[in-house]
Amino acid sequence: MENQCTPLPIHGKNDYCLCDPIHGTRIGLNATRQWMKSRQMGNEKIFGPEDAEHEIERFERTAKFVVWRTPQDREIELLIPPTVYPPRKDTDLLAQTIAKLSDSGGKRLLEIGSGSGAISVFAAQLGFDVTACDINPFAVAATRNAAVTNRVVIEAREGGPGPNNDGSVEQWAGREPFDVIVWNLPYLTYEVESPVLGPLEEAALLDTDHKGLVARLMAQLKSNALLKQDGFMFLLVSQNEIGRRARSVCLANGFAVRTVASKTFEDGEQLEVLGIWKPYSAAETTYVESIESTNTELLNSTAEIGTMLQAGRQTSGHGRRGRSWIHEEQAFAASWVIDEKRGVPDPNQLQLRAGLALYEAIVATGAHPEFVALKWPNDVLLRIEEQTRKVGGILVESSSRGKNTRIVLGIGCNISSSNPHKEGFSLAALNELLDDASTEKFTPIIHAAVASWFEEKNGMGPVKNSEVNTLFEATFSNSIPLLGAPIYRNIEMAFQELKPDGNIVLVDGKKRTFSIDDGEDIRWTKCSLD
Questions:
Q1: How many CA atoms lie within 13 A of 352 on its CB side?
Q2: Which DSSP category does 7 fall into?
Q3: C-alpha separations of 133 from 35, 76, 119, 157, 182 in Å
Q4: Which CATH superfamily is domain 82-277 in?
Q5: The sheet that has 108-112: what strands, in order across it?
Q6: Can you tell me the distance from the alpha carbon of 135 to that of 106, in angstroms, rounded to the nearest whole number?
Q7: Beta-strand (E) ranges in 186-255?
Q8: Three-state DSSP class for 68?
Q9: Separation between Cα atoms, residue 95 and residue 116, nearest integer Å
Q10: So where are the chain's domains?
Q11: DSSP string, 30-63
Q12: Beta bridge partner(s), residue 421
């Protein structure tokens, strides 16, 4: 095979060498020993100096020749040295996601953690202008070798998201922004007693960064022109604690996030690809000190989809059934144009998505899920001092314009209040849980959360109703201990299920079931206000 390297005897030892066909260099044991000891594997709690020598022993192994098949059943030839992550089922899922992109010709793509180079070669074959990076120099060499072997052009660099002393963004990504960024994120959690493949191999699967690699990347996306304004990123994660936290980290940094692909394997492992982008990048966001109603203003305007109108105070803000919106000392109040097309979207789906957006934004702001409740169909409450009180709500309104229907979403959330206890009821405010709560912090997070559930973004695919229902039911079910038992027709009941149409089913003590289509018909035993 062209450019293939084999172990070479040097001074009586098998010194593994991988040819770098681009730069004509060889990487051997002596260089590896110096490199690994200088880095001490980054995190001494996990990989200490003694691991360097253990890892060096693994270099006695021979590189493996692998043929990986793309989603189009094309063969990509790879030479995979020790310590480099080979293509596996997660590689296949990420490749399938990239293959669905309709427009790749000439667009710039960055693969972080290129490993064997399989995804980078595949993307180059699709027509992308590919840059690849990896913190493992053997992976960089393998990627360069894969490019030459499979006759594509890839710029492979050493480095990746991490502390500044690991290299600047310009070192591993260059200076030009990208249309697409992909990363098969290390998704295993570290366990002290668990055996590992070896520090470099395990680094492909294990997030050892004390800050968290997703948080590190989000910070670099915000502070550098790494992603084009209308670009997006695919992040492959496992549906474990790290994967679940990744969604909140993206929102906390002002990026919209959506599951675009997922798969459960025979061994029970669940992987998903998150799509990440800058929310409503082409639409305007406007702030006014005072206005009668943000919803009314946008309903009567010609503002495009994605436009956000935020007000410091609403003088005629309103909720469902004409209720007045009570504006606390510091409150977030804004509306978005979320749709305008023929026909009326499913109103129940709009309510569920809006409720999830507000719930996820509050959690991403820093509130622990243990104290945040999502109440069907769209209210969010906080558990404070043995009381569950409403912190925010949703109002979806529409108006007809010829054959089209304009949909506006309004969201209100109390940020701080010196007197949350009103006559006859009590409200909650974020500052009761979070010392640093502010509208300035909350605004980009809720904007990203709304886009996550409503924006029609190229490359992201539509939000499926079944996925909305599944996540809402799980979140709502977990919230019931904070809400208490539902009371319907003055009878205490139990929640049974969320129906596909968005209504809920309650069951009483006699096993009779009741389908409920309006949240106003239910009271909850632990809630101070419904």
A1: 27
A2: -
A3: 17, 19, 12, 5, 11
A4: Vaccinia Virus protein VP39 (3.40.50.150)
A5: 154-158, 129-134, 108-112, 178-184, 227-238, 270-277, 256-264
A6: 26
A7: 227-238
A8: strand
A9: 14
A10: 82-277, 285-482
A11: HHHHHHHHHHTTS-TTTS-HHHHHHHHHHTTSPP
A12: 426
The DSSP letter of residue 188 is B
* Amino acid present at 133: C
Structural element, H or E, at residue 131: strand 129-134
Rounded-to-integer distance, Cα 457 and Cα 203, Å: 33
As a whole number of angstroms, the distance between CA 22 and CA 17 comes to: 15
Of 5, 133, 152, whose CA–CA distance to 64 is shortest? 5
> Binning pLDDT at 50, 70 and 90, where does residue 220 land?
confident
Q: State pTM to two decimals.
A: 0.85
In order of 175, 350, 360, 377, the CA distances from 396 in angstroms are 43, 8, 18, 12
Q: How far apart are CA 88 and CA 471, in angstroms?
A: 28
Helical ranges in 253-367 per DSSP H: 294-299, 347-365
Predicted confidence (pLDDT) at residue 29 exceeds the cutoff of 50: no
Q: Which residue has the tokens 């480095």?
A: 159
CATH among 1.10.20.10, 3.30.930.10, 3.30.420.10, 3.40.50.450 for 285-482: 3.30.930.10
Distance CA 435, CA 530 (A): 26
- Residue 363 half-sphere exposure toward CB, CA atoms < 13 A: 23
Q: Name the band, by pLDDT with cuts 50, 70 and 90, for residue 207.
A: very low
Angle 344-500-529 from CA coordinates, rounded to 5°:
85
Longest dimension (CA), the chain: 87
Sole residue written with tokens 């993307």: 123
DSSP for 402-448, please give it: TTEEEEEEEEEEEEE-S--EETTEEB--GGGT-TT--HHHHHHHHHH
Q: How confident is the model at residue 212 (pLDDT cuts 50, 70, 90)?
A: confident
> What size, in residues, is the chain?
530
- Is the link from the previous residue into 177 a cis peptide, with omega within 30 of 0? no
Nearest to 237 by CA among 110, 42, 133, 97: 97
